[in-house]
């Protein structure tokens, strides 16, 4: 009888080489876990037959929640009874994925007893993904993780688990406290996270600076990207040090690569036309000892990104060019305190007008950005588009009397 | 304008809607909300609908399901669930 703890056949190919191998990891789990043993067998069968033997989705979950559990069943239960059920549980990660080791140990202990003992740390959305358990184990697992202070994340047509970059915890470029905002938004929208009320999924991601380490511009419906609105701080002495001591060709590596060509370098002094700077941070990344972001900080809110599931991939585009994230707040500016109203307006429109499985970015494409902005009560702004005069949804109010126009 | 239904009355109307459609049509939460707004014009809002759905889900009379999107349905056994292999 074949050793069920060892992957052979085609899977053996995936153990070769110096690279991390998920097959080796499953083998390790299979030494003590029967689900992992049958997982190896089922995966080999799928590779041999070039067929997926999983069916996902369905009715399973924990009482009261509409997300966090993804039902998964195998269509050859007679052959692999231990993965007949192989449900996934998504568990909301701490902001920026900071764990204490005893928390991780406790989580692993639970999953060794209740499931396959295999995790995906972390899923694309950011959750801890507990891979593989049976229906009867769902509620007990949920009970145990909640006692540890964790909760399920989002799945289905809900607000997916918000995630953020490491932010000010370890990064000097954080323009706002991404961890705090991610936590606050997660707590504020618990109902939307656990109880499906949307046409389809909706994701928040919080990036502390334009480097966007969580790739929020591509991977979230609503991205919050840290930025600043005053001038880049320049230490000219250090700029010259880069040129002389570090032998950096500033013209080639920095100035010529500025997307808006807003910089100049004469060999002695670097000049930046901040009015035309888009805050891409390329120059700062290259000469981080000489250039620093400004001190008037906040974030830009972008909307509409998605991966290619039903339609093609989209990047998000600017909705709010600058939102002040920390007090003191001025009365005439958009601030963090306005965020709930903005989110509600977007969700209200999307809920009313969105088709089944239509992401908010697809809704914007379908009804047009002008109509979308009008419906949520935002005025178009130049920062929303790359070339204002070529975009048909930008209308200029040239003044005059409405009555005269009607005539 | 008609009197506003209580949360419980609204929940009953929602339950009936889902039950009548069982096996024929799956409803999302927003479909149910839109139907309730039509049934009780001008007296029902999103907050009331959410409360009513919460009552139905927490009592187990209705459940959330996922089949490409999230729906609200009567509890049922899935054909793919392999119930005898759940041990």
Characterize the structure shown.
The complex is a heterodimer of chains A (407) and B (87). Chain A has 407 residues and is of the alpha+beta class. Chain A folds into 3 domains: 138 residues, Alpha-Beta Plaits (2-Layer Sandwich), CATH 3.30.70.2500; 161 residues, Sulfite Reductase Hemoprotein, domain 1, CATH 3.30.413; 60 residues, Alpha-Beta Plaits, CATH 3.30.70.20. In chain A, the strands form 5 sheets. Chain A has a 5-stranded mixed beta sheet. Chain A has a 4-stranded antiparallel beta sheet with strand order 2-4-6-5. The longest helix of chain A is centred in the N-terminal third of the chain and has 16 residues. Chain B has one domain: Arc Repressor Mutant, subunit A. Chain B is 45% helix and 9% strand. Chain B contains 3 helices and 2 strands. In chain B, strand 1 and strand 2 form a beta hairpin. The longest helix of chain B has 15 residues. Chain B is elongated and about 50 Å long. The chains are: A alpha+beta (407), B mainly alpha (87).
Give a concise summary.
Chain A is α+β, with helices and mostly antiparallel strands and 407 residues long.
Number of strands of chain A: 15
Could you give me the name of the CATH homologous superfamily of the largest domain in chain A?
Sulfite Reductase Hemoprotein, domain 1
**Shape by Cα distribution of chain B:** elongated
Q: Share of helix among residues of chain A?
A: 25-40%
CATH topology of chain B, by name, is Arc Repressor Mutant, subunit A
CATH domain class of chain B: Mainly Alpha
CATH class of the largest domain in chain A: Alpha Beta
How many separate domains of chain A?
3
Oligomer: heterodimer
What is the number of beta strands of chain B? 2
Rough shape of chain A? globular
Q: What is the strand arrangement across the widest sheet of chain B?
A: 1-2
